[in-house]
Write a structure and sequence with these properties.
This protein is mostly helical and about 170 residues long. The protein is about 80% helix and about 5% strand. The protein has one domain. Helix 1 runs antiparallel to helix 5. The radius of gyration is 17 Å and the shape is elongated. The protein starts with a helix and ends with a strand.
């Protein structure tokens, strides 16, 4: 039973992390397009931060590095949340409200911590930081809502049943 919960929680988390990130990227694409900025610049900022952190400032294309890092962190976070909430009954998302609220808290703590780290590494001017911080809060609010909703849905509908060595939806 524990192995089944672990695998099921992993599946829920990976699906939720991926869907949530696609949703905020679509929202970011729309908002940035209205502002006249491309989505690539968003990923380039994340990529430049990573490359600066590991000492490869001018090495690779920062857009692909940022895109990869962004999705990796989101899917990994979804995986951890899915595992923990599926494995431990006290943490299980027994209602949509609980799932969404806990996921928003997780998303805000993680997202804002990573944004703060990025702003220090990239030496973002304080005049720009407040605007970017507001966008960060908004995007991670959406991400948390999506993550909590998807994992709650999966848990409440008990998706992916174990049958003879493989999972079926």
């Amino acid at each position: 039973m524990n192995e089944e919960n672990t695998v099921r929680g992993s599946i829920y988390g990976i699906i939720a992390g991926t869907i949530s990130t696609i949703v905020i990227d679509i929202v970011a694409l729309i908002i940035l397009a209205v502002m006249g900025v491309s989505l690539a610049s968003f990923f380039a900022l994340i990529g430049r931060c990573l490359l600066t952190l590991i000492g490869l400032d001018a090495a690779a294309d920062p857009v692909w590095q940022g895109l990869t890092l962004h999705y990796s962190i989101a899917i990994l976070t979804g995986l951890v949340v899915g595992l923990l909430t599926q494995r431990f009954n006290k943490l299980r998302f027994s209602s949509y409200r609980k799932g969404i609220l806990l996921s928003i808290i997780i998303a805000q703590v993680e997202g804002n911590s990573l944004f703060y780290l990025m702003s220090v590494i990239m030496k973002i001017p304080q005049s720009e930081m407040m605007f970017m911080y507001g966008i960060c809060i908004f995007f991670h609010l959406i991400w948390g809502v999506c993550l909590g909703f998807v994992i709650s849905y999966c848990q409440q509908h008990n998706l992916f049943h174990y049958s003879g060595g493989c999972y079926q939806s």
